[in-house]
Amino acid sequence: MPRFKLVIFDFDDTLVHLKVDWNDVKREVLKIAIKERIFLDSKEHLVVIGNQLSKTSSLKNELDDVYRRYEKAAVDQSNYSAIPHMAALVKELHKEGYKVGLASGNHTSNLRAILARLGILRSFDVVCGRDSIWNNKPAPDQLVFIMQRTGIEKSEVIFIGDSRYDEEAARAADVVFFKVSKPASETDVPKIRELLSS
For 152, which of 6, 86, 167, 193 could close a Cys bridge (C-beta 3.0–4.6 Å)? Predict the structure, then answer.
């Protein structure tokens, strides 16, 4: 009997290359902070800055909208590409009966649009973007949300991502983590398969 029943994927550089100028996003996020008289270290990673600003509902909504707009521009201009071997793995796992989830710091509407265009949206049981939950990675909230929606216990879950924030989220959720290359390479697939069959 396979140990894992639910496979959760990160998005950027795990499944897809999304071509957004994150420096522009960061600049706009910092403008929001200045407007609200919140002083943040501009040298910090966008993930850290974004999470600090998301502590109040009004700012979280405003911040989520910044991400949505920049990502939608990339979607509208088709500025993204699938990582083919990982997209194929998603389809295969779905056909084999695994539950498949997506946990991403991108906005859900853009995630769903890209996945639909790539022909893999229906392979996902749950798509959880930054606007679906309160706290984004490295908090465990997205992973917990997906586990709750699928009814799968944490001992039966593996999370696949490329960043230390993904790894920290997996640790916080107490699920197994597999770190792919950055970006995910073809050599990652047999390693994931081996882990799933262990």
Answer: 6
For 38, left (φ over 0), alpha (ψ -120 to 50), or beta? beta
Neighbours of 157 (CB within 10 A): 25
Contact 97, 152 (CB under 8 A): no
Q: What are the φ and ψ backbone dihedral angles of 16, each rounded to 5 degrees?
A: -145, 145
CB 17 within 8 A of CB 111: no
User: Which two structure tokens, joined as six digits, stand for 121?
Assistant: 């949206």
Domains of the chain: 6-17+81-196 (3.40.50.1000), 22-76 (no CATH)
Strand partners, 8: 101, 159
41 vs 8: which has the higher pLDDT: 8
Q: With contact defined as beta carbons under 8 Å apart, do 149 and 126 qualify?
A: yes
- H-only helix segments in the chain: 22-35, 46-53, 57-76, 84-95, 108-117, 141-150, 164-173, 188-196
pTM: 0.94
Mean pLDDT confidence for 59-72: 93
CA separation for the pair 144, 101 (Å, rounded):
11
